Amino acid sequence: MASNMDDGGPCSTDDVTQLEDTQQRQETRPDQNNEGEETIPAISIKEPDHKKGRVTKLFKKTGPKHQRLKVKCPIDEQGILSSIWFAWMTPVFYKAWKGSLKKEDLFSCSPYDSAKVNSERLERLWADELKQKGTKKASLAMVYFRFLAKRSFISCLVSFIGLLSSFFAAAVFVRLLIEYCQQQEEDLQHGLLLAGGIVLCQILLIASMGFCWYLNIRTGGRVRAATVALIYHKTIRLRSTKGMSIGEIVNLCTNDGQRLFDMLLYLPHALAGPPLALIALVYTIYLIGPAALLGTGVFVFFFPLQALFSKVIAHYRSRSIVVTDHRVRLMSEIISCIKLIKMYAWEDSFASCITGIRNNERSLLRKGGFFQALCQAQTTLIPVLSTILTICLHTSLGNNITASQAFSYIAVLNSIRFMIIALPNAMKSLTDCLVAFPRIKSLLLMDEIQEFTKKPTDPDIALSMMNTTFAWDKEESTGTLPTPKADQNAPVGRTQEGVEEDRPEVDPLMGVDAGFTETLFELNLDVQKGQLLGICGSIGSGKSSLLQAILSRMILVNGDVAIDGSFAYVSQQACIMNMSLRENILLGAEFDKRRYAQAVDVCALQEDFDILADGDQTEIGERGINISGGQKQRVSLARAVYANKDIYLLDDPLSAVDAHVGRHIFSKCVDTALREKTVLFVTHQLQYLKMCDRVILMKDGQVAEDGTHRELMDNGEEYCNLIKTFHSDTSDNSNDVDPQDEVTVRSQDGLGGCDDESERFGESGSDGVPSEERSMKKEVDKDTLKGQQNNSENLKTSTSDPITPRIIISGPEDSPGQDVFEDNAGGDGIRGNKSEQTNTEIIIDEDIPQHGHGNTQNPSLIKDVDKIQDAQEIPQVENTTEVTNDDSYHQSQDSSRPHKQPVTFNLQKDTECVKIKKPKDAEITAGSEDEDLLEEDKFGSAPGSPVRKSLPPLRNFMRGIGTDVAASLACSEESVFYDGKLVEDEETGDRGLSMGTIHEYIQSAGGYIVALIMILFFVFSVGTVVLSNWWLSFWLNAGSGNTTIIVDNEMVTSDSITDNPRLQYYQLVYGSLAITFMAVTIVRCFLYATVSLKASSTLHRKVFHQVVHSPMSFFDVTPLGRILNRFSNDLDELDINLPLKMDNVLNNAILIFFSLLTLALVFPLLLIALLVIFCLYLVLNSFFRQGIRDIKRFENVARSPWFSHIMTTVQSLSTIHAYRKNDEFIERLHHHLDDSTNLLILFYIANRWLAVRFDMITLLLTSATGLFAVLSHGIVPAATIGLAIVYSNQLLGLIQYTVRLAAEVNARFTSVERITYYINELEQEAPQSIKKTKPAPKWPTEGRIAVRNLKMRYRQHLPMVLRGINFDINPNEKVGIVGRTGSGKSSLGVAMYRLVEKSHGSILIDGVDISQIGLYDLRSKLSIIPQDPVLFIGTIRYNLDPQNKFTDEEIWKALEKTYMKETISNLDQQLQAPVVENGENFSVGERQLLCMARALLRNSKILILDEATAAIDTETDSLIQQTIKQAFTDCTILTIAHRLNTILDSDRIMVLSAGKIVEFDSPSALLGNPCSYFSLMMSTVGDKIIK
Fold first, then answer.
1. Mean of pLDDT over the chain
2. Which of 550, 644, 631, 557 is nearest to 592 (CA)?
3. CB neighbours (10 Å) of residue 1534?
4. Are 861 and 954 in contact (CB under 8 A)?
5. Rounded distance between C-alpha atoms, residue 741 and residue 1351, angstroms
6. Highest mean pLDDT (candidates 62-66, 161-165, 751-755, 1141-1145)
7. Parallel, antiparallel, or unpaired: how do β-strands 647-651 and 1434-1435 relate?
8. pLDDT: is 328 or 979 the higher one?
9. How far apart are CA 614 and CA 815, in angstroms?
10. Per-residue pLDDT at 117 exceeds 90
């Protein structure tokens, strides 16, 4: 029968056949790991170690999942008896009891319960509903009704049969048995038959309920899986989320999906209740008489009362859900942006915001919880009130009532009492679902992405746009603060209404009452296949929007778009996911070793891989939190290269990498690896535009100029001015170099530069090859090209390069790592003639001394001179700079400005090679400090491990400044791991209902006194009910009170209780107990709702404080979904589910105690049976407890992966769409969801396993009670026997239900444990403020910084990222900080903000050791503009001033200084204009400018600019640099930059490498030394001409 049920459910036979076909197709696929076995000598690829616990692979689960579908699941093989008895779960409990249960031991998900099958059916039903009724009239509730109708109807029927059997036992057998006890004659056989009839009816009840719950649980699991998958399927197809945040989408999937599940558990039982209530009404009228109408009428009245309460609960729940969504969304944003929040010391501000939202939520939950508690109390109140009213009315009318009538009536009411229990739960879940349906429907009606399918008529065209206008969807305002409309109405762009008939009207961001905002206008663009198209323009001009439009992420208002080819997309903010580096690159594609090696090579990632303990199998955190911005961008670019698509959309991919890596990527990746591809290259790095086949300039959403670089320069319009501005900035900066400091370094041909304007801005590239020749060079023989690439380690520069300084570097062939330095024209043979190039080789000696005041600490060279081929001996470089020791370089504290000490070198003219000898005994030239550092870096790795090999004490000079990413990564703050595993396994909470967890919960609720008072209220409430039944028994046993009446003229003793002279007294006490019970229950409900909400709110406050004050290392290793799970699902358990279950447990446990006490008092010998039954309970419960706890823990942990997967998907929609990876991501969700669904079903079925067995044990008690009732004939009064029978029958379902609820409470307490784990176990940062060391209010007054021997590592077992740094920065000094990716630049800022505490040394600001003061006192005095701009959901004003400290006038001034005033003033609501999640309604450059305005408002004495202008166009960057000079004249500024020209006007420049300062001097001094790190960095970027 179970099998038939499944076939008739959501999974049809066709669906299963389809699944098996899919599985067979999967089996025929070639093994991914067997392909591409060729070895690539240049690239070392580390294969995964399957023996280690690595991160779960993203897409390789697909095969095993389909294989499991073919394996029969035990749950599908069971017949009806096994479905009732659940015998197939016994081995699971046995294994858990033995203490060895693992998740792998559990059954796999049944195909009938899988997300794929059920979601497809639900989607079909929804599509049919839309087709039949349209979007406005379509009812999601009706769709779910059709989805569930068949199984739910059968479940209702089975439930009705079970309840009917219970009713029959009470109405017939209980009444007859009590009548038997009342009669004088004893008939043992008749009595035993009656008792046996009760037992048989109870067996039928147990069987029916078992099968009904089985159906409900599986149906609920299916509808939950279908709902989550349906929401996800829609989300991944959305064109835009239109203001719906990640938190809201996750909340839809988690909470609303669970509520549908809860509704399916109880609704069939509730629906079976009304027919049974009608039967009961008829019978009680027959049994008692018309008075029964009053009592039974209370039951009838109960339904509309429940409906009323349900409406009230739904009202408060709907309001609280909105607030909960808001809180979860804000919490998600806080966790995502925690680094910025910490650096700006905004923890308290956001805590206040969360507290305010939580207080509002708590108020609504308290009111809803009060009415929910009343609904629960009615399950006990209704039968008691009905009995009291009926009997009091019946006796008041002068009618007699016997014990058999009274207790049969009570038994009948108890038999339908389960209906009352099920109805509140069903109504609660139903109302929650009715609230959820409109929210889900609004998501389902959002616009999906529609890819362009039309192809160009010309086969040589890859992309064609004709008169196209594109628009963005209007984003809904979801601000944290109210957003009243401003008075000004200045629309930006053209807007249009009515894109879609059903599109809801929202508050506009731009324009007036528009469904969308037009952004790109009248585009006419044809891109040839194989063309490299450069795209430039100012911020907000529409560059990124153009790429998004091509990807169909925008609305095509008019015009035609034709595309021929597939896409690869590199977003401006790299999309990195929580998986290994290799999986991030493959993104689900099959592994091809050669193609993978090429992608790694051209994106300069191999050195990064070599330094990692687990190579490219190293796990990366969410959003790439543990790698640098440049590394994220290169991984994203490698993904695009590996994808091997036709059209490449590169959105400013070089902004996050340093100049030299950018040059390498452009040369080897964009200009070589993608030579045959169509590339749309958006960039602010204008030096690369001349090498593009064609350039377009975007302005105000239109193509302002279009042509080759040469053509646009000849036109002399805006593009020409932009290029000249870019180079004039460089020239202006170069004027800072004093004439006496200038050095000329020439190659043999003597060319040192080009002063000719036409050459400087000409169309020839850096190699002198015109850009028009790019297409001709694509015909180069591929084998020749491969051969040339194998020699790519030679670093060579064309002598005709008009910009690159004439420092030419070359090395031996096949020298490892040198290819990263390769010039555009270098030895790869791509541009120019290799044989025609002349090269100069510079080899620097290791013993170049470290300068004193100038701090030009050049590292030593470890390359063996003998290995250099054809090296020529030449005189050693003469260094005229005075040499001082390491500790004497610090300036006098009295100097206000740095002393610029020139560094000069005398170089022989016309020398081809400068070679400086290396001392044979010089192993460590930096002194003993390096030895100490190396000793400190022995963090446990084996001598032969990749990490140890990557930490040699000395570096090749050129590797140090360029290719040796490994050297810098050895000390990288974000890139080195001990074992390759980053994300730690989630704690499972295996303690269960421990005393520590109970203690934490009670203390949070108000303490033990409050808890004791609550328990007393429960005891008093339940005791009143039991006392009323005892009083009725006492009243019935009193009978007439020996009153004599005259019958047929004879005086006889009356047998009617109405003749009792104390009738009114009995009635008064009986009625008073009902009133007392009602009063106590109302007070108890209110107190319970208040106390339970206080407990959850207190725990929420504590865990929020602990999380936001945890160090950054916690967020590095913990996925966002795991943290958010505490604040969404776990807190929802504490707010709603746990109090609801505990209420029932406490109430029922006390009722069971009083019931057993009653049985023991009536039949003392029953204590023996009770003892035996109690022992069986204990044994069974001990056998069961560990298993249910384990399964619940597994289920809790199984939720986090699909939480995180949904969030990752929403954050990566554009990348997923571009690579067309929808199916792979959906498959991954199905895998996670099937795992979670299976564990959820097993958890509830495990509860039913216990319930059935407990019912069978309780049946022994019922049998024993019936037996004692028969055997006590004439000994125990009939009324007392009736009382015992009623309670024994009541215990049948009550004990198992209560024990099951207790187990569920135990399991649900894991949510409390998970929260208290964070409260008690999370490591905390230093105090926010320390009273004894609190600095002066105006500190710092000067901005002087002194760093002494600073060493820092990010986490234990990781190497040092800062390795003994020493420097002084004077007040108001402007210092530029440069170095390769991973050299420690950002780590210096991390150390100053104490995001990671130092390991050694000190940092002093104005003489105050920052390690001795509070974090708030430190961070609130500093300002930073981060590399990744961060905006919060809210308004413009809220983002600039979340603490509301500044006036609007001050904010407008800050916006004006950052050139954002015009943009903001053009918005309809201006400062109150909404900002959506991640600031997606602004371009990256605009977000960066808003972050700069935020820093301006703080007006700190110390400002750190971390790549602050990386996403800003050159013209705006130039203006911003002027603003920085003017607005921060009295500030100490530390500027971390990749654009070297932006720091040339700094007072001093600090060059970092491998966590050490290698140079620290004025720009003129560093540029005056042609062998300095900085000079060579400038030579590679081509941003400066050294005259």
1. 74
2. 644
3. 24
4. yes
5. 34
6. 161-165
7. unpaired
8. 328
9. 24
10. yes
